[in-house]
Write a structure and sequence with these properties.
By secondary structure, this protein is of the alpha+beta class. The chain folds into 4 domains: about 140 residues, 3-Layer(aba) Sandwich (Glutaredoxin), CATH 3.40.30; about 100 residues, Glutaredoxin (3-Layer(aba) Sandwich); about 100 residues, 3-Layer(aba) Sandwich (Glutaredoxin), CATH 3.40.30.10; about 100 residues, Glutaredoxin (3-Layer(aba) Sandwich). Strands 1-3-2-4-5 form a 5-stranded mixed sheet, with helices on both faces. Strands 9-6-10-11 form a 4-stranded mixed sheet, with helices on both faces. The protein starts with a strand and ends with a helix. The relative contact order is 0.06.
Length: about 500
Amino acid sequence: MGGSVKDVQSKKELDDLVKTGAPVVLHFWASWCEASKHMDQVFSRLSTDFPHASFLRVEAEEQPEISEAYSVSAVPFFVFCKDGKTFDKLEGADPSSLANKVAKVAGSINPGKDSSPASLGMAGGATVLETVQQLAKENDSSKGKNQVQPGLSDSLKKRLQQLIDSNPVMLFMKGSPEEPKCGFSRKVVDILKEEKVKFGSFDILTDNEVREALKKFSNWPTYPQLYCKGELLGGCDIAIAMHESGELHEVFKDHGIKTSDETKVAEPGNVKGGITVSTGLSTLLTSQLQSLISSNPVMLFMKGKPDEPKCGFSRKAVEILRQENVPFESFDILSDEEVRQGLKVYSNWSSYPQLYIKSELIGGSDILLEMQKSGELKKLLYEKAIIKEETLQDRLKKLITSSPVMLFMKGTPDAPRCGFSSKVVNALQEEGVTFGSFDILTDEEVRQGLKVFSNWPTYPQLYYKGELMGGCDIVMELRNNGELKSTLSE
């Protein structure tokens, strides 16, 4: 992989570069995807042809936070950024489209000339382009059908079919449902759990023969792969779309797939609060682990301490808990090797950090981050009575004090939606007063609640240091008397 292509190491590094406004081209790839490897050759050549743009490579499954930020659900996938925002996207192995889009975002090689044909010619030799174009052609044909490709032995075909038929709903994924090894696999597991269906799974990382053969057998080049009654439904992007549209529920219903409250059936007495109890650990160590887990309603097992995390994942978990204002205790697993190794067996979770709420394992930093983004974490904390649900009064108090001078208005300062709000904005701006604002048209609960809270029936309402100053008439009176700026700076 030559050219001037750089591998992205963190989302912050990428965000900082995009913010500069310079042209940035991203290639989301995976080491197991042949199409990604061939397109990377084209990508690397283009990086030489267009030296004024930054060409970055992102390993999609190793950087789930970046992949999710750009809605990547399949590879190869390309994102084109310019002027600090996403300019265009491209999914799949299409060298001609890639060259065209790069030319548009980075400018032509020779000003005044059409850059696409030239750049495409320089970007890849005949062999590379022929290979990539063939891959694109194959990917577009017969998707979703179990067409058996040549080169598989009868015994291997039989084994694959047996695996596919081993459960009514069967997921071929990276890792296990309890510990997915990629963001795409985790998303499909979450969807199946939301659908409340029982499903079997196969970790394709444990068997390279199955991993490579199934891609040919199903004519589907990526993982995860979801099957229902032996029929391939698709991968992560298709599962998400079907789930959101309700089609997935209908497919399961049509095929007689029963739903239940538990997506995984456990042996009686074998599972407690998501933790495997029959672990083979000594009674003494098991008792110690149970005592540690239950020692606080929110317990984080991490590397280091909250003020001195010893790994980035532990630091991220601490940041999330602090952002959510969650009181928690922690245990430094680096200080006790027996606890460190024993807890991995006890919880059936092989990495750290591990977060427990009311003695129930929630997961690691990646799951925490996803739950925080979706709002699921706050919801869980309310349900478990870890934090009190914010009342409307609490929310109004926070809004009122969110800025020393706070204006509740119709619309925004740049686009007021009523004459009175416009007058107050103009008065504050003319006096050079810095102020925060809230558009009450966007939130009916705040709009009605604040009138009761402040005992002031109309808008706009202006507050200074948490106290109501008044509406449009009072603000205009203060301005006309020359007292507005001094009143708001006492």
